[in-house]
Amino acid sequence: MAPKPRAGLLDIKPYRGGVSDAPGFAAPTKLSSNENCFGCSPVAIAALHEMDGSIDRYPDGGVQQLRDALAQKHNLPAGQIVCGCGSDEILQLLGKAYLREGDEVVHAQNGFLSYKLIALQNGAVPVPAPEDNMCIDAASFLSVITTRTRIVFLANPNNPTGFLMPGAEVRKLHAGLPDDVLLVIDGAYAEYVRGDDYEGGFALVDKHDNVMATRTFSKSYGLAGLRVGWAYCPDQIAAVLNRVRSPFNVNAVAQKVALAALQDEAFLAKSVDHVAHWAPWLVEKVSKAGLKAWPSAGNFVLIGLQTPEQADAAEQFLAARGLILRGMRGFGLPGCLRMTIGTEDENRTVMAAFSAFMGQ
């Protein structure tokens, strides 16, 4: 008899990333995974090339240099920073460390898929907080909190909707939570946010024991292939994460390249400025094409078609022209597509294709 996994694990639908290929195109335009359209910093590429012949040693298990650099950049104590194989790993570790059978995990109705998976993988129950036209507030989250709630995941900005919860609402949400509930503010797209009223979590972590904030190098820094993420958390949570993570969970190449990318502020500014310009342009053009688009604080735009069938047809129409967007059926939004903000040429090409699709 074959070994049996824990009950319920085989019922979980595995996470699937954005499609990367289009039949008939050797180099299609991939706008399905919210990657940086400029790639990564040339400084980071130079650091990668310098790794030749130096990968036979184990990496620094404490990721000290990178943590020190992050601490200096963000004016944080390095001892409260934990690095991981992408911020996804850190979120997974939280589930492993803090969830028990029957616990509840609260997330936005249209939040990042990993939150639901983390709950199910650990025998917990995912509980969606209702949204209103892709928007959510503190009251909505607090309306589903129970005595069994253990973790609240808040992606801010949210993926896939692009919604940004104002800082006052984030603080209201935290204030309404019991002290034994952990609020996780996932800032995967934090660098793209413009404006003063943003609560990324660092200030709350400084004042409270039940908040932590995560960031990633995958989006604005363009290092998705190296998988580097980090968290800023209270001392006791950092101590827990450092006990459940793998001893060498951030490889040597990733550490060195991320450290280099962190120094190239010009590249980061270029990436952020590009998104700030093209996100509203795309929303406007989508609306003129007769479709729905929601304002986004990330490097992507959620596009609503009239029906799920029309969304499927649009996805196929674009793919036939080498343009890959992300269908949202797996996110529970079957009538939508998500488009990563690309280069100027890519953005214009996709909008021209949408106009052609709608004019058929």
Write a structural description.
- With 360 residues, this protein is of the alpha/beta class.
- It folds into two domains: 16-40 and 266-358, Alpha-Beta Complex (Aspartate Aminotransferase, domain 1), CATH 3.90.1150; 42-263, 3-Layer(aba) Sandwich (Aspartate Aminotransferase, domain 2), CATH 3.40.640.
- Helix content is 37%, strand content 15%.
- The protein is built from twelve helices and 13 strands.
- The protein has a seven-stranded mixed sheet with strand order 2-8-7-6-5-3-4, sandwiched between helices. A four-stranded antiparallel sheet has the order 9-10-13-12. The protein has a two-stranded parallel sheet with strand order 1-11.
- Helix 6 (167-175) links the parallel strand 5 and strand 6.
- Helix 2 packs parallel to helix 9.
- It is globular, with a radius of gyration of 20 Å.
- The relative contact order is 0.17.
